[in-house]
């Protein structure tokens, strides 16, 4: 896969629990110019009105937890992880 | 081994799979769906997971338990989907030569699962409302810092 025009990349987003309900879908593919997952979450939060601030989430890319400042690459699968509640 | 499943948990089969002639102690823990939470009547729970990440993180927890405690076996299974009152949502079983390590490891594993594994639960209440636990944006959890 190649990067799109002007530094945009195509990422696959996975939503869970409260974020899935607030977004209305479990996953979507998005073209974004966001550089990091932190930038991406702020972009999505403004667009979809997510109630959870990034400080209460973790982020996973391609099924591994990563720091919020990790740069996004074309084709990344990004999951924002709300506060967990198993058990 | 940590697994997610949509099927009811079979505690007898899970326990049997831990059988080991080197083990002198087996501690198991089951988390059950309770009919109330914080004063509200609960009808059922809905569990959702990031499957791949949950199994990775769950197996990491079991590996940590085995490095902290001298165990002979460690298994945990968590349900996904909708569960009724009284159903087991999670099952943890550990074996060791002696009871001290088995009790300690079982406690460690369930505590870490609840704190780290990407599984979410939505409570459905008798009054028709529902709520994702820990995801409210008011109250103690809304201040942005995880509990110390």
What would a concise description of this structure say?
The complex is a heterodimer of chains A (87) and B (148). By secondary structure, chain A is α+β, with helices and mostly antiparallel strands. In chain A, 22% of the residues lie in helices and 28% in strands.
Descriptive overview:
The complex is a heterodimer of chains A (87) and B (148). The N and C termini of chain A lie far apart (40 Å). Chain A has helices at residues 17-23, 37-48; strands spanning 9-14, 27-32, 58-61, 64-66, 77-81. The relative contact order of chain A is 0.27. Chain A is of the alpha+beta class and 87 residues long. Chain A is globular and about 40 Å long. Chain B has 148 residues and is α+β, with helices and mostly antiparallel strands. The model of chain B is unreliable at 139-148 (pLDDT under 50). In chain B, helix 2 packs antiparallel against helix 3 (99-116).
Name the descriptors.
heterodimer, A: 87 residues, alpha+beta, 5 strands, globular, B: alpha+beta, five-stranded antiparallel β-sheet, 28% helix, 38% strand
Helix-strand layout with pairing:
The complex is a heterodimer of chains A (87) and B (148).
Chain A (H helix, E strand, L loop, with lengths): L8 E6 L2 H7 L3 E6 L4 H12 L9 E4 L2 E3 L10 E5 L6
Parallel strand pairs in A: 1-5
Antiparallel strand pairs in A: 1-2, 3-4, 3-5
Chain B lengths: L1 E4 L5 H6 L8 E8 L3 E2 L2 E10 L1 H18 L2 E9 L1 E4 L3 E9 L2 H18 L2 E7 L4 E3 L16
Parallel strand pairs in B: 1-5
Antiparallel strand pairs in B: 2-7, 3-4, 4-6, 4-8, 5-7, 8-9
Helix pairs in contact in B: 2-3
């Amino acid at each position: 896969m190649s990067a799109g025009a002007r530094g945009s990349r195509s990422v696959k987003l996975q939503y869970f629990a409260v974020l899935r309900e607030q977004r209305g879908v479990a996953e979507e593919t998005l073209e974004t110019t966001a550089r990091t997952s932190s930038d991406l979450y702020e972009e999505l939060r403004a667009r979809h009105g997510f109630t959870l601030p990034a400080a209460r989430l973790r982020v996973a890319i391609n099924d591994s937890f990563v720091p919020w400042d990790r740069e996004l690459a074309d084709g990344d699968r990004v999951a924002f992880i709300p506060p967990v509640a198993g058990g | 081994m940590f697994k997610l499943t949509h099927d009811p948990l079979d505690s007898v089969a899970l326990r049997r799979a831990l059988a080991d002639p080197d083990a002198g102690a087996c501690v198991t823990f089951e988390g059950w769906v309770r009919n109330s939470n914080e004063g509200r009547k609960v009808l059922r729970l809905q569990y959702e997971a990031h499957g791949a990440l949950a199994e990775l993180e769950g197996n990491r927890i079991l590996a940590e338990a085995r490095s902290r405690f001298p165990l002979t076996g460690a298994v945990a299974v968590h349900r996904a989907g909708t569960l009724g009152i009284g159903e087991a949502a999670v099952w943890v079983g550990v074996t060791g030569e002696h009871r001290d390590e088995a009790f300690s490891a079982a406690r460690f594993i369930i505590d870490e699962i609840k704190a780290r594994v990407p599984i979410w639960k939505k409570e459905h209440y008798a009054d028709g409302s529902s709520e994702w636990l820990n995801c409210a944006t008011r109250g103690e959890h809304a201040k942005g810092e995880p509990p110390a």
